[in-house]
Amino acid sequence: MKTILLLLVALAAVTSPAWALRCHVCSSATNCKQPQTCPPSSRYCRSVTTVEPLTGNLVKKDCADSCTPDYSQQGQVSSGSGFTQCCQGDLCNERLNSAAPPHALLSIAPLGLALTLGLLAVVPGL
């Protein structure tokens, strides 16, 4: 009896569908949202934003087996360049993030503090 029960559990595990990732899959000039179930091999949701100053930006979202994020530095974005965002989790590519990597945004705060302190030291009475 235990052998039959064990066999049925094993058979159910093999024949049941794998838990599939869900991502937004679309292409648009705006932040599009179209949820779809990804193929079983997909481990990432990907958002690729291509910068086109004359025709407008293009946002492409899809499922990906592998994904390497890259970022463009603000002020250095040329036509046709862009950035890729990767995430893991159902519908995690819903929002678009800044083109600047998080560490670049954090490095602005110490610079601003240093400039303020420098001005206070140079200009008396402030």
UniProtKB/TrEMBL annotation:
UniProt cross-references to SMART domains, sorted A to Z: LU
Organism: Nannospalax galili (Northern Israeli blind subterranean mole rat)
Keywords: Cell membrane, Glycoprotein, Membrane, Signal, Transmembrane, Transmembrane helix
PROSITE patterns: LY6_UPAR
One GO CC term, this protein: cell surface
Chief location bin: membrane
SUPFAM superfamilies referenced in this protein's UniProt entry, alphabetically: Snake toxin-like
Signal peptide region: 1-20
Domain UPAR/Ly6: 21-107
InterPro entries recorded: CD59_antigen_CS, LY6_UPA_recep-like, Ly6D, Snake_toxin-like_sf, Toxin/TOLIP
PANTHER family hit by this protein: LYMPHOCYTE ANTIGEN 6D (PTHR16982:SF2)
Protein name per the record: Lymphocyte antigen 6 family member D
GO biological-process terms attached to the record: lymphocyte differentiation; response to stilbenoid
Positions of transmembrane segments: 104-123
Subcellular localization(s) per the UniProt record: Cell membrane
